[in-house]
TrEMBL record:
One of its GO terms (biological process) is glyceraldehyde-3-phosphate biosynthetic process. The keyword Metal-binding does not apply. Keywords: Isomerase. Belongs to the triosephosphate isomerase family. This is Triosephosphate isomerase. GO terms for molecular function: triose-phosphate isomerase activity.
Length: 252
């Protein structure tokens, strides 16, 4: 693992029923989790409230998507109002970003239902749903319009503390084909170098870069040993409480 606090996110995607999610929550509540790890789960929107009301506060909640602007006549969308957010256009093409939200005095839907995070730019949103760079860029623009800089003014970002970058090779997502620890390490180093050149050495060293793509209880330990792997984004294996706990506890 790298020098930042280990981060493990579970993306439940469009899975679960009240019954299976209650079981998952109860497994997570009774799991023993290493204390020095940030743990976040992203339930389907319809179950966020159920999860928020039953899951231990030890685990934070993420949204799986957000709208490009203020609320209104946008059937099926979810609005947010971040007071801090960031989306780098170069990253939009390659990475899924987790953007942390802080509670705003104008409570909007995501914060109202207890989400502290939102996933933006996941490859499933691009390839299956059809979101393109332009649309994701609009989401970014809305987030940026809340008082923050754009990629060209990246050094105007006031704080990178709550930004986590997930590197997820598309061929590894949900396929059972995991990147080798060396492959992942190589890309994570490249991302860190990008940050160093385009932002600052300090941000490069403290921003957490996590790996996603067929991580499971069997392969997490070797991946976690890599110097630049600061955690994981987990899909399928996050639906099994004990296995997800093994992944959280793989921090080295
Ligand atoms: C993901 O969708 O972000 C993911 C990493 O999925 P899986 O772990 O199932 O490959």
């Amino acid at each position: 693992a790298g020098s930042g606090k280990f981060f493990v996110g579970g993306n439940w995607k469009c899975n679960g029923t009240k019954e299976s999610i209650s079981k998952l929550v109860s497994d997570l509540n009774s799991a023993k989790l290493e204390p020095d790890v940030d743990v976040v789960v992203a339930p389907p929107f319809v179950y966020v409230d159920l999860v928020k009301n039953s899951l231990t506060d030890r685990i934070e909640i993420s949204a799986q998507n957000s709208w490009i602007g203020k609320g209104g006549a946008f059937t099926g969308e979810i609005r947010l109002k971040p007071t801090f957010s960031f989306l780098a256009r170069d990253f939009i093409k390659h990475f899924c970003l987790y953007v942390s939200l802080t509670i705003s005095h104008n409570v909007e839907q995501l914060t109202d239902i207890g989400c502290k995070w939102v996933i933006l730019g996941h490859s499933e949103r691009r390839h299956v749903i059809g979101e393109d760079d332009q649309f994701i860029g609009k989401k970014a623009a809305y987030a940026l319009s809340q008082g923050l800089g754009v990629i060209a003014c990246i050094d105007a970002v006031p704080s990178w503390d709550n930004v986590v970058i997930a590197y997820e090779p598309v061929w590894a997502i949900g396929t059972g084909k995991v990147a080798t620890p060396q492959q992942a390490q190589e890309v994570h180093v490249a991302v860190r170098d990008w940050l160093k050149k385009n932002v600052s050495a300090e941000v490069a060293s403290k921003t957490r870069i996590i790996y996603g793509g067929s991580v499971n209880g069997g392969n997490c330990a070797e991946l976690a040993k890599q110097e630049d792997i600061d955690g994981f984004l987990v899909g399928g294996a996050s639906l099994k409480g004990p296995e997800f706990a093994t992944i959280v506890n793989s921090v080295t």
